[in-house]
Amino acid sequence: MTASNLMGRGLFGSVEAARTLALERLVYGLLAFDLLVEMAPHGSRYGVGGMNVAHFGWLDALQPLPTGATYLAVVFASAVLSMGLALGLPRGHGGALSRWALFALYTYAWAMSQLDSYQHHVFLSIVLFALALTERGAGPSGDGGAPRGPIWVCAWSYQMLMASIAIVYGYTGLSKMEEPWRMGDVLIRINASDGRLEPFREFALSAGLGEETFWWIGGHLVVAAQWVIALAYLAVFFDPQRQRRATRLLALAGLLTALGFHLGAEYLELRIGWFSVYMILLALISLGPGAPWRLAVSKAQTLAQRVARATDGAGTAPTVVALLALGAAALASASLVSLPAAVAIGAVALCLAAAPWVFEASGGERLRVAATALVVLVLVTVSLTQGRIHYDYFRFLGGDLTRRGDPVAALEAYGIANTWAPESEDRRAKAAKVRRSLPRSMR
Amino acid sequence: VLALASVALLVQLLVPMTYYVGEASADERFAWRMFSSRRAETCTVDAWETRSEAGEGKTSRLRLSALIHRAWIHGLSRRRPAIVARYFQWRCESEAVTSLRLVRHCRSATGEALPDDAIEHRCLGRP
User: Fold this and answer.
1) A400 vs B82: CB contact, 8 Å cut-off?
2) CB of B28 within 8 A of CB of B39?
């Protein structure tokens, strides 16, 4: 069999529709909150001191110096699009446009500056690229299948993603073959920060295992885990229907290993954002059993069909009301969110609601899209105002301004941070310290 | 479709490979080397700058945190090539600056001190 045949067999093999649907919706949903909770608070570091290095030299030549507002505008626009896509918005031709726009915006969000050097953001761009390539039929408009039996579709972009994930784990395994990992030195270093591995080490020592052997085993287990997971993804790439027993066994081993490895990473508090959550989600959908996803997709589609039936005969008035509510919500969002570029949230939600007019959708579709855009806008605004996003943004800004010798601006930033502070913490002590550093006349 | 997917996957295979065949071992961005042995090193960086004042060169230590965001300082301490190059270019924009020096102090994953390494840079066209 030639390489081309082998590749074609993997790419065009039959995949359970429910897996592709669940993966698309859940990844988009998770990404929307990830953008708001994990990325937005770091907006204040952009443009500081007038220095920037993009991830690609040509981007440095093209773009002006990114500022906090530039970064947040891109993050907010991505979050609204991502949440919209998670909720099935917009439908029709606007769907493809939105998926590509999200891929481009998200990629630009990390590529604009090496201030964001999380490798999993690069990985997520690969995921979004695969999702943007998803054709209708294998995408959200397709039939996920009744809970009792799978429906098989050709979903080559989903299959391409399986191969991409295998490549990522393969290279991660390769990088961990180096001596400091195999000998456990890196684990010792990770453990040195807060001793999360101490209970396991003590147990191993009490069981008669030597110190060096414990770290050696730990290092080798981590390396082995990468290879097992990579092989599992390769197995489901080449045999997506899992007809071979070996594929089913490898997928199960891969799932359990991925769960163990990524939950372990979370236990160690490695500060890798939501990377573990994504990888656990991808493993559950791609390597785990299909039945739970068939059930979930079936329930979601039943609900969507009910909504469609209820709104299909609606006249123009409900749509006008929904659009007016959306406009009011956009204004309220811009006023409630006290971060730079907050206006982008409402603007993108309005663009989503306008898509059915551009693509000449039916009246019922226009109402559903306007109502969903309203839900998206409310969810994004609530996420930004109810958590610690404002607090983190302004305390990071205050810290940086203090270090750069601008105590007046730092005090202002700390003051805003304190108004958004969660119950258990604030920056009052830091603000007081900065105030003491000011000349008496300025305090 | 087959050609598009093959090219996409080939790129994903080749880009990380460039790390292993290239010389810029400090640049792990696209190599899927999360928590690599290099990343496990703990490094700090000191910055020195020589300025020409009244015809004489005066060298002083810079407080980097007062100049740039600490994420850039972290990048300098990791000797990330593009960040180091941009930092030198940025400082050389000041006409008085003639040369720059970064000195990194690192410890291995196990905490042993590694030899210091210094990166020197002379601003183009300055004495």
Assistant:
1) no
2) yes
